């Protein structure tokens, strides 16, 4: 094809010049030009030839008649309709040298047509981009990448380009297009397998080339992003040869413009959503990589073998689907196999391969399409698969992680309660508080700047996602919008300062509130919203202490969550899990009421929760879940009565808790869980007895028992240090030494019983020394505070604590300066809070000064 | 000069008027005479310039728009017939809105020529936008050199020069594209 002139600036000038000359002079002129600039000369010669040759089309007035053939019969309405620029309009017209014959499908940003090419004669699938201005460049980059793919199981790209549209075509101006191999009368991979009644192994043989095709694409740097059966086609008569279509274009189906919103139908999004990876559901494109495609392959494989999706998404709302994909583990394919599709049940190995591809966390997932294909081939050859080993290991870790989560959540609730009582001051080393303190110190600012910057960046991402709420709502309705809010709330922890976090949470609450009125009777939506409100509440509870203005916001969020949850419960009053969910929300609301000092509301709420749980327990007396729920609710009720008479309610509730814990132990609850619950119950009873006044020694004894339970957990944590890490030990040490040990020491010291104080220390000190050896930095601070407490209580170093103190100083020296500063300032806070209780802090302050000065 | 945009309301009006007029003239029968673009474009100008609601209508803007609209009308028809002809080679119809009468070869040749010209003109426009506007006025609106000069604000001599170069450029470009019998 002739290209643009070599030098456009000159060509027309030279041409005019040449034309003004007579024939001989013109020939000489062209010669002269050619001698110095041969390419330009050649082009000039061509133009002069063309000038003489002429062309009837250009040289005669244009006769419209043949060109307008057919127009006389055309009704006005079709012309009108054509200018409306509907996607159908391209049908019957041309795109480049392709005759567009029918519209096959439409997505968010483009349409797909079937088109015919005369030379070479073939049928193609034509993808046309609707909004050139937004995605044109990206589309062309994708096209180039796709053209590099060359695999028998990937539909080929025949060409791509920019087409100037005519008045009747899809839109004004030019539009981008891409032509692909057309899969004639195609069936999806799942339809084909069903129709052919393929057995398990044949289905795997059908699937493996798909994984290989994806592997090929990944090697060429192309992600598919939208793997689903509809994009895995078998041509009629294709003998089971699957072709992957629609590569890399999933990104183009993301809505971009106002106009797009109206174009994509809800159902289409839902269709795609079911196959999306958890990280895609999180709406974070930066986290989408090859492992997202591995996940997509996993879903297709699952469906191919069972006829079902990995999750029960029947009748689910959009937000619910998002939540399920992100949080619910895949169902065991063995339980579903053979029902929807007459296929053999996968064995344990194959199940492990399938489930490994469906892991939520990309880091835990099968690492590549290649690894998946290899493992399936291994299975077909009856060799051991790799996924199995990995998954067994993973499950053990998962179990451990879940249990820790439980500990922390229970511990946090109780710790907060204790703070409110004012009996014990808990130094709560909140990350944000720490960052804030450090920020205040200029010499440390530079060191922390990077960390803080990173967190801020994360936060502004969340903010942006929240801002996208409005168009999401317009387009997909409240489910999707709620999902974004939810995401923002659960990620609000990324905020480095409370101000930033407050901004995110306020925005989230506002958005959630605007969603509530449009819910109608959508129960799944109500459930999702309730969860989102609950998360807002949790998020606030974990960041702000009680009595902050935020505690009112948290309470309002829980109120709203509870209101929605009651609606859901009213419609499913027989459903156990809904009832328990409501009870949990009410318990949280009651706890929030206490923090916001709305005691009477709190007591009414917790009574409602306890009534629900007791009713549940009558029906399921042996349910460990229900018993745990009741224990949690009783704890909250006890705390609610601390700030208000009668105190005795707390004692009664805690004693009932203790009985329930025994019940749990009999039901075979793990020892760690039982110890944890028991330690808190004993701690509470200790408080009630002291508070009531009748039995301070009894209270101290309960404190001792609570510390002993806790110590066993600390010992277990120390034993697991190599696997669980120092952090886990630090958390446990903080509780054991600080909360439990500290309370016991105080209780006996107040009784003036030095012997018992010594006995307590005899148990705690060796553990302090062990902690120093582990290098658990926070534990060091806990030891400092134990010492401080001893000083405060004038229990002056009765044991040979000097050695420990020396070790402490050593450890203190090794700490970074910022950590020392942070601890010292915390210690000062602690001292001043104790002063508030009228303690003599002189010796404490001396000790503190000596610790602070070490190594400076 | 500003090429008319298809989203321009004037474009819509001109497009409709040109189409309607051409349609009615063809329906009435031409009695052996040919229907030339210049006649249709001028008749529509007369009609629109008499319309009091379009009193602000500027003559040069009108002609630029009319040329663009005429090009789109013609190219649209040609593309649709070409599409139908390819589809018939594959033994199938299209979901398009044209009648299904057989295509005659002269018709197909005229379409191929026009589409080739249109494509060449797209490339030419990219390199020489002002010259392309001259082509548009001269060819699609059928304006004389003088009328083109008035509509584009160029001198007649410049219009002649620009047309001459554009014509040669397009002929050279089409030389490779057109079937032998059409050159």
TrEMBL record, chain A:
Residues 691-701 have a biased composition (Basic and acidic residues). It is an enzyme of class 2 (transferase). It comes from Saltatorellus ferox. SUPFAM superfamilies: Protein kinase-like (PK-like) (SSF56112). Pfam families: Pkinase. Its EC number is 2.7.11.1. This is Serine/threonine-protein kinase PrkC. ATP binds at residue 127. Residues 98-380 form the Protein kinase domain. The keyword Ligase does not apply. Residues 691-710 are annotated as: Disordered. InterPro entries: Kinase-like_dom_sf, Prot_kinase_dom, Protein_kinase_ATP_BS, Ser/Thr_kinase_AS, TPR-like_helical_dom_sf. Keywords: ATP-binding, Kinase, Membrane, Nucleotide-binding, Transferase, Transmembrane, Transmembrane helix.
Automatic annotation (TrEMBL), chain B:
GO terms for biological process: DNA-templated transcription initiation. Pfam families: Sigma70_ECF. One of its GO terms (molecular function) is DNA-binding transcription factor activity. Residues 7-174 form the RNA polymerase sigma-70 ECF-like HTH domain. InterPro entries: HTH_Sigma70_ECF-like, RNA_pol_sigma-70_dom, RNA_pol_sigma70_ECF-like, RNA_pol_sigma_r3/r4-like, WH-like_DNA-bd_sf. SUPFAM superfamilies: Sigma3 and sigma4 domains of RNA polymerase sigma factors. This is ECF sigma factor. It comes from Saltatorellus ferox.
């Amino acid at each position: 094809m002739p290209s643009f002139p070599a030098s456009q600036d000159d060509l027309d000038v030279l041409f005019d010049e040449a034309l003004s000359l007579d024939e001989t002079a013109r020939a000489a002129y062209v010669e002269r030009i050619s001698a110095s600039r041969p390419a330009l000369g050649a082009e000039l010669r061509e133009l002069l030839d063309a000038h003489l040759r002429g062309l009837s089309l250009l040289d005669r007035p244009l006769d419209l008649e043949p060109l307008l053939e057919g127009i006389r019969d055309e009704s006005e309405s079709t012309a009108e309709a054509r200018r409306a620029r509907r996607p159908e309009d391209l049908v019957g017209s041309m795109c480049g040298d392709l005759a567009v014959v029918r519209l096959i499908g439409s997505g968010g940003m483009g349409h797909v047509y079937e088109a015919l090419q005369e030379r070479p004669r073939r049928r193609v699938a034509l993808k046309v981009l609707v909004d050139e201005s937004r995605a044109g460049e990206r589309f062309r980059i994708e096209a180039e990448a796709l053209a590099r793919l060359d695999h028998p199981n990937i539909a080929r790209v025949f060409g791509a380009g920019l087409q100037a549209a005519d008045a009747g075509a899809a839109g004004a101006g030019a539009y981008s297009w891409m032509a692909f191999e057309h899969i004639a009368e195609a069936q999806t991979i799942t339809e084909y397998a069903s129709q052919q009644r393929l057995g398990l192994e044949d289905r795997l043989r059908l699937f493996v080339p798909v994984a290989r095709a994806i592997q090929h694409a990944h090697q060429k740097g192309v992600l598919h992003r939208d793997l689903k059966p509809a994009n895995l086609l078998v041509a009629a008569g294709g003998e089971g040869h699957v072709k992957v279509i629609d590569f890399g274009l999933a990104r183009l189906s993301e809505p971009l413009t106002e106009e797009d919103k109206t174009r994509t139908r809800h159902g289409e999004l839902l269709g795609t959503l079911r196959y999306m990876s958890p990280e895609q559901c999180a709406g974070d494109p930066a986290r989408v990589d090859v492992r997202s495609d591995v996940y997509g392959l996993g879903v297709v494989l699952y469906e191919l073998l069972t006829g079902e999706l990995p999750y029960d998404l029947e009748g689910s709302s959009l937000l619910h689907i998002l939540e399920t994909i992100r949080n619910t583990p895949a169902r065991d394919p063995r339980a579903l196999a053979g029902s929807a599709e007459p296929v053999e049940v996968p064995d344990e190995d194959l199940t492990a391969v399938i489930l490994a591809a469906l892991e939520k966390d990309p880091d835990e997932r099968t690492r590549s399409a290649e690894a998946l294909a290899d493992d399936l081939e291994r299975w077909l050859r009856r060799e051991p698969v790799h996924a199995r080993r990995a998954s067994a290991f993973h499950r053990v870790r998962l179990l451990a992680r879940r249990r820790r989560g439980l500990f922390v959540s229970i511990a946090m609730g109780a710790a907060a309660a204790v703070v409110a009582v004012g009996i014990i001051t808990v130094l709560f080393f909140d990350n944000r508080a720490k960052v804030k303190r450090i920020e205040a110190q200029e010499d440390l600012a530079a060191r922390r700047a990077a960390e803080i910057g990173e967190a801020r960046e994360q936060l502004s991402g969340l903010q942006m996602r929240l801002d996208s709420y409005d168009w999401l709502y317009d387009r997909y309705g409240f489910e999707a919008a709620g999902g974004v809010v939810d995401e923002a709330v659960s990620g609000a922890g990324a905020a480095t300062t409370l101000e930033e976090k407050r901004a995110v949470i306020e925005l989230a609450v506002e958005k959630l509130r605007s969603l509530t009125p449009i819910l109608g009777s959508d129960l799944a939506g109500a459930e999702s919203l309730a969860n989102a409100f609950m998360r807002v509440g949790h998020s606030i509870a974990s960041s702000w202490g009680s009595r902050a203005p935020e505690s009112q916001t948290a309470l309002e969020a829980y109120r709203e969550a509870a209101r929605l949850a009651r609606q859901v419960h009213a419609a499913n009053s027989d459903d156990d899990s809904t009832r328990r969910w409501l009870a949990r929300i009410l318990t949280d609301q009651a706890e929030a009421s206490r923090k916001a000092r709305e005691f009477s509301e709190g007591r009414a709420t917790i009574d409602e929760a306890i009534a629900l749980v007791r009713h549940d327990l009558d029906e399921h007396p042996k349910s460990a879940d229900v018993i745990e729920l009741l224990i949690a609710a009783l704890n909250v009720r006890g705390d609610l009565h601390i700030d208000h008479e009668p105190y005795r309610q707390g004692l009664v509730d805690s004693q009932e808790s203790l009985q329930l814990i025994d019940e749990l132990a009999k039901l075979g609850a793990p020892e760690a869980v039982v110890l944890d619950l028991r330690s808190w119950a004993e701690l509470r009873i200790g408080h009630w007895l002291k508070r009531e006044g009748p039995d301070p020694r009894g209270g101290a004894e309960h404190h001792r028992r609570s510390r002993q339970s806790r110590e066993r957990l600390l010992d277990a944590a120390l034993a697991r240090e190599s696997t669980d890490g120092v952090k886990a030990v630090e958390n446990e040490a903080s509780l054991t030494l600080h909360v439990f040990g500290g309370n016991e020491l105080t209780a006996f010291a107040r009784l003036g019983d030095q012997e018992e104080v010594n006995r307590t220390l005899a148990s705690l000190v060796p553990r302090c020394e062990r902690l120093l050896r582990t290098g658990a930095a926070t534990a060091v601070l806990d030891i400092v505070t134990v010492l401080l407490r001893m000083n405060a209580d004038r229990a002056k170093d009765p044991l040979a604590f000097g050695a420990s103190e020396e070790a402490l100083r050593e450890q203190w020296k090794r700490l970074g300066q910022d950590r020392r500063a942070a601890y010292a300032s915390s210690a000062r806070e602690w001292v001043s809070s104790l002063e508030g209780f009228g303690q003599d802090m002189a010796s404490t302050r001396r000790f503190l000064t000596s610790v602070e000065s070490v190594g400076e | 000069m500003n090429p008319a945009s298809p989203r321009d309301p004037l474009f819509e009006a001109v497009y409709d008027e040109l189409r309607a007029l051409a349609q009615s003239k063809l329906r009435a029968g031409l009695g052996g005479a040919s229907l030339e673009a210049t006649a249709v474009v001028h008749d529509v100008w007369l009609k629109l310039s008499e319309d009091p609601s379009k009193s602000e209508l500027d003559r040069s803007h009108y002609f630029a728009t009319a040329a663009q609209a005429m090009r789109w009308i013609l190219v649209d028809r040609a593309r649709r017939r070409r599409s139908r002809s390819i589809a018939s080679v594959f033994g199938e119809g299209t979901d398009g809105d044209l009648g299904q009468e057989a295509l005659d070869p002269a018709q197909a040749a005229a379409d191929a020529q026009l589409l080739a010209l249109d494509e060449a003109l797209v490339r030419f426009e990219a390199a020489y936008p002002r010259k392309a506007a001259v082509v548009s006025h001269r060819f699609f609106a059928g304006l004389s050199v003088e009328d083109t000069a008035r509509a584009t604000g160029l001198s007649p001599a410049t219009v002649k020069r620009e047309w001459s170069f554009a014509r040669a450029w397009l002929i050279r470009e089409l030389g490779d594209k057109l079937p032998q019998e059409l050159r």
